[in-house]
Structure formats: structure tokens, C-alpha cells
Write a structure and sequence with these properties.
- By secondary structure, the chain is an alpha+beta fold.
- It has a domain of 83 residues: Lrp/AsnC effector binding domain/regulation of amino acid metabolism (RAM) domain (Alpha-Beta Plaits, 2-Layer Sandwich), CATH 3.30.70.920.
- Helices cover 25% and strands 34% of the residues.
- Strands 2, 3, 4, 5 and 6 form a 5-stranded antiparallel beta sheet that branches.
- It is globular, with a radius of gyration of 16 Å.
């Protein structure tokens, strides 16, 4: 069964519904995980999180949350597994809040849309 084609440009704002893993050509689902951690454990938590398969990036941030982990996977079930079985068990993590991305908007996509004449 082949996957339905993904529309690269949804509007003049150049929204893309999914990211795409260019190394394997598969549409990827992105989730953003906001993380509260023990202050003295932030660096260790970030390093451990960055080593989890499916976690593409980890940022330390200011504000209410301590870390942000970006998850990119091919299936929704993988987000649930990664967050519940791998992220939340990292020592020092106090809580998480997961957001699933619907569309990605980027300046690069906007520029490409104008280059090919989309308006």
C-alpha cells in the first residue's frame, strides 16, 4: 500500500504538513516535548535525551520549561512510545508536555514558493 502524496505547498504561506527525512524519503511526524527537570540535572537530562532514537534535537531554554526535545518519527505510535517509555524515565525529569506539529512553516519554504511562482 503506497502512502498518499504529501502536498509541499498548502498556501501562499508555504505550510508543509510534515517534515521529510531526506536520507530515506519518508514523511516524518514532528513532536515538541517541553520538559521540566531538576535544576542540577538539566545538562545530564539533555545529554541522555539526545541519545534517544527519534529525538532529533534537545535545547535548554529559559522560562517555565527547562528543556525542549524535538522528536521526528514516521508513525504516531512512536511518539507515544518515546515520550512514555523513554523520555519520562530519564533521571531528573519532573514533568513533560507534548505538542504534535500539524504543519511546518519556514522562511525557506516561502522563498521556494515564490521561486516557482506560487501565489
Amino acid at each position: 500500500m503506497s502512502a498518499a502524496p504529501v502536498s509541499l505547498y498548502v498556501s501562499p504561506l508555504a505550510a508543509t504538513p510534515l517534515t521529510k527525512d531526506s536520507s530515506i524519503g519518508v514523511p516524518m511526524i514532528t513532536a515538541i516535548v517541553l520538559i521540566k527537570a531538576e535544576p542540577k540535572q538539566i545538562a545530564k537530562c539533555a545529554t541522555k535525551l539526545a541519545g534517544i532514537d527519534g529525538v532529533s534535537q534537545v535545547y535548554s531554554v529559559s522560562g517555565e520549561w527547562d528543556l525542549v526535545a524535538m522528536i521526528e518519527v514516521a508513525e504516531h505510535e512512536a511518539i507515544a512510545r518515546i515520550v512514555t517509555e523513554e523520555v519520562t524515565v530519564v533521571p531528573g525529569i519532573k514533568s513533560t508536555h507534548t505538542l504534535t506539529a500539524f504543519r511546518a512553516y519556514s522562511k525557506k519554504d516561502l522563498e521556494q514558493a515564490w521561486d516557482i511562482g506560487l501565489e
